[in-house]
Design goal:
alpha+beta, rod-shaped, 6-stranded antiparallel beta sheet, single chain, 146 residues
């Protein structure tokens, strides 16, 4: 009488369990990649907002009087406001996906509270509050009344 040897290999159940485990692990890894991609986009937006607001504040801090502000600033209800819009590549445009608002409210005779807000549509990406002191708040630069 001949004894039959068991054939070596994997059963269908073992292969099915292995494929199911591999699929589960793949789904988790794909979700991690998608989350990392979303975080990267948000971080890029915050970085660009920081750069654009910092640039605008550097220009603003260089001004010594309200009269030296550019025509981009508009007086609205005891508040001085500048609005700018940027496209997807953060290039200045007439209308855009991103918006930056800088508003100044008078605190004392020469001290103004500056609020900077960077938005994506209706969602706020970044907000910053600081103060600006104008040495000559009501004097035009170069008018000879030193």
């Amino acid at each position: 009488m001949k004894v039959l040897k068991a054939e070596e290999g994997f059963t269908l159940i073992e292969i099915s369990i292995s494929v199911a485990m591999l699929a589960f692990i793949s789904v988790v890894v794909i979700k991690l990649f998608l989350a990392a991609s979303n975080i990267n986009v948000k971080a890029s937006e915050v970085d660009m907002a920081t750069i654009l607001i910092s640039n605008e504040l550097e220009i603003l801090y260089d001004k010594t009087s309200l009269a030296s502000l550019s025509d981009e600033y508009i007086v609205q209800d005891e508040e001085i406001v500048k609005k700018a819009y940027f496209d997807d590549l953060f290039v200045l445009s007439e209308t855009g996906k991103y918006g930056m608002t800088i508003s100044m409210k008078k605190e004392t005779d020469a001290l103004y509270k500056v609020d900077c807000t960077f938005m994506k549509g209706e969602k706020e990406i970044m907000s910053l509050e600081t103060y600006k002191h104008f040495k000559y708040p009501f004097k035009k630069v170069g008018d000879g009344s030193d």
